[in-house]
Amino acid sequence: MSAPASSLQTGEPLLVAQGLSKRFGGLQALKDVSFEIRKGEIFGLIGPNGAGKTTLFNVMTALYIPESGSCNFQGVELTRLKPHQIADKGLARTFQNIRLFSALTALENVMIGQHLRTKAGLWGAVVRNKATRDEEARVQARALELLDYVGIGHVANEVASSLSYGDQRRLEIARALATGPALLALDEPAAGMNPSETVVLRALIEKIRADGITVLLIEHDMKLVMNMCDRVLVLEYGQVLSYGLPQEVQRDPRVIEAYLGKGAAQDLAQQADSAPNNLSNPSAAESAQP
Ligand SMILES: Nc1ncnc2c1ncn2[C@@H]1O[C@H](COP(=O)(O)OP(=O)(O)O)[C@@H](O)[C@H]1O
Ligand SMILES: [Mg+2]
């Protein structure tokens, strides 16, 4: 009997989004989007460019105010918060376009992430007064730990802009982890990475989940999503196109059509009946049991 992918019990809802809609002028970027992220899962969010994936992150993290809908996270209504309150509630994210303090070192970037959660706060870190000295040492030690955790401890004292692309992405993840999140939302973390960096990233994401943090993953690489995620939400033109287990979603004719065009759906459906699916996810198959 094989062990489950995670020692965590998945199932209890962590985040419940209902009827989220967001409009930019005449463009409906999100329309009536509902889904649920369960504790302990890696939840995939996919869809063609412009489908509304980043907009959904921006609504969830209070950067955008939706016209309608709600997003409940551990009993807190996220859409009523200010952006700076989000991390404090246990939701941390990375950005599709890397946002680091490029002139600061990797270590300093992570320390800033952590100061959200310390009593002294950013000001204390800047003036370095007596009252904050002990805390400062703790924050620095923790930041070093996090850099090691994501695999870039050896570049702790290098400025962020000098790091390789893959290392900058991992630094962003370390900074997000520094806020101590229950849910980590990653916006295309593998974008621009080479295949070997992507393999390392995948292992990191799986380690994060195994350590008790639920992961929401926007990803373009269909194979990566289908192999890693427990459940998947597919957006197209701001609407939910498909939602479920990876093996359900990838067989959904609407998804195949959106990705591969008309005609491909029928061909693939016929193949699926005759051949085993090499993109199936064993852990998701287990969680499919009622
Ligand atoms: N701040 C904004 N102002 C106007 N239009 C926006 C804004 N943000 C996103 N959009 C539009 O909303 C749609 C969804 O964008 P986005 O959420 O970035 O898609 P995805 O991340 O799935 O590629 C796109 O058509 C995009 O041009
Ligand atoms: Mg995007």
Question: Can you give a write-up of this model?
Answer:
This protein is of the alpha/beta class and 290 residues long. The chain is built from twelve helices and ten strands. A six-stranded mixed beta sheet has the order 6-7-8-3-9-10, with helices on both faces. The chain has a four-stranded antiparallel beta sheet with strand order 2-1-4-5, with helices on one face. Helix 5 (130-150) crosses helix 6 and helix 10 (253-260) packs across helix 11. The radius of gyration is 20 Å and the shape is globular. The structure holds adenosine-5'-diphosphate and magnesium ion (MG). Magnesium ion is lined by residues 53-54, 96.
Mean pLDDT across all amino acids? 85
Q: Helical element count?
A: 12
* Strands side by side in the biggest sheet: 6-7-8-3-9-10
- Name the structural class: alpha/beta
Could you outline the blueprint of secondary structure elements for this entry?
Layout: E1 13-24, E2 27-38, E3 42-46, H1 53-60, E4 68-73, E5 76-77, H2 83-86, E6 91-93, H3 106-115, H4 121-127, H5 130-150, H6 165-177, E7 183-187, H7 195-210, E8 214-218, H8 222-228, E9 231-236, E10 239-244, H9 246-249, H10 253-260, H11 264-274, H12 282-287
Parallel strand pairs: 3-8, 3-9, 6-7, 7-8
Antiparallel strand pairs: 1-2, 1-4, 4-5, 9-10
Bound molecules: adenosine-5'-diphosphate and magnesium ion.
Residues 24, 27, 29, 47, 49-55 line the site of adenosine-5'-diphosphate.
